[in-house]
Amino acid sequence: MTWLDAVRWDADGLVPVIAQERASGDVLMFAWMNREALARTAESRQAVYWSRSRQRLWHKGEESGHFQQVHEIRLDCDNDVVLLKVTQLGHEPGIACHTGRHSCFYQRLEGAGWVAVDPVVKDPQSIYR
Amino acid sequence: MTWLDAVRWDADGLVPVIAQERASGDVLMFAWMNREALARTAESRQAVYWSRSRQRLWHKGEESGHFQQVHEIRLDCDNDVVLLKVTQLGHEPGIACHTGRHSCFYQRLEGAGWVAVDPVVKDPQSIYR
Question: Which of A18, A76, A98 is opposite residue B77, by nearest beta carbon?
């Protein structure tokens, strides 16, 4: 029995993960991990997710250089959701989103529509070459 | 086409939801919503989730009195994760977790084990009568 066994993996062997910026408290992104991704994250102290679309391990920042340094790994009361406290590396301010924005949660409901309310920090075409 | 149609609901018609305390930035909990839950949340400005275990709408606080006032509803870049900015009502400091803690994410990985590092604010037996 290890700490990895305490996690309640879902039917696909995954657990949802929230990445929160330690310094600002901003929620940066949401992704998934399998057992190996979580083990690697804990060992390397950099976020490694499971890409459901590509069906492979995804070392966040492997293409963009925007790695996530992991300060804390937390687990919720049901043992089925993980929260990371991170520093978003590679750019100041940190860019977690593939659109070149700080956070993936840049759309806000205003009236009857979603509005992009946060700026693009850096052109994604200059991030992903 | 409404703003609800823009959400990419999963195969079960659900979307993952992160509730973050507006004042502190603390991530309080993680849950799920179906279309009706999100519509009710937007209309009432109180968080209404979909309970997967009970297979019914769950007005957060209906048993505990610890409702969540919703200030902002955000959507991520893939349109498949929702972030709420809330005030956790009914107690000061707010109690979002059924264990009587402020946040559900009270377990931290330390060495090779999960450690409960945040205190119980109020005995859950006195919350759920």
Answer: A98
Question: ipTM of this model?
Answer: 0.97
CB A32 within 8 A of CB A15: yes
CA proximity to A37, closest of A55, A56, A57: A57
**Cα(B112)–Cα(B114) distance, integer angstroms:** 7
Question: Does the pTM of the predicted model rise above 0.95?
Answer: yes
CB contacts, 8 Å: B108 with chain A: 72-75
What are the pLDDT digits (tens) for A39-59?
999 999 999 999 999 999 999
Helix (H, G, I), strand (E, B) or coil at A19: strand
**Residue contact B114–A30, C-beta within 8 A:** no
Cα-Cα-Cα-Cα dihedral sign, residues B8, B10, B13, B18: negative
In DSSP notation, B20-80 reads EETTT--EEEEEEEEHHHHHHHHHHSB-EEEETTTTEEEETTTTTS--EEEEEEEE-TTS-
